[in-house]
Specification:
Number of helices: 0
Oligomer: single chain
Order of helices and strands: EEEEE
Strand order of the largest sheet: 3-2-1-4-5
Number of strands: 5
Distance between the termini: 45 Å
Shape: globular
Mean pLDDT: 88
Radius of gyration: 15 Å
Low-confidence stretches: none
Largest sheet: 5 strands, antiparallel
Length: 88
């Protein structure tokens, strides 16, 4: 059975950290200036999960259950990347 058709629907912009890892080794040269960074699995409030970076994390900014909000980051190459920032 083929799934579909599908429709776009709005997703919540907030969720919580389900899992995370501090990354200390760059996957490519483009990440060299961003080390270390946090790669996290985010559980959105509506249920879906996705992986994204946590912006500007300090040592106490990442923990399981931490509330985060979607933000968009403009990259030097013109790409726009979905990231998450802690909700204070």
């Amino acid at each position: 059975m083929r799934p579909g058709p599908f429709d776009w629907s709005p997703a919540p912009r907030e969720g919580e950290i389900v899992s995370f890892s501090w990354v200390h080794l760059q996957p490519s040269e483009g990440y060299a200036t961003e080390l270390p960074y946090v790669l996290a699995t985010i559980g959105l409030d509506a249920g879906p999960q996705l992986m994204a970076n946590i912006l500007n994390p300090g040592p106490e900014d990442a923990w399981i259950g931490r509330r985060v909000r979607l933000v968009f980051e403009d990259r030097a190459d013109g790409a726009v990347v979905a990231q998450f920032a802690p909700i204070t």
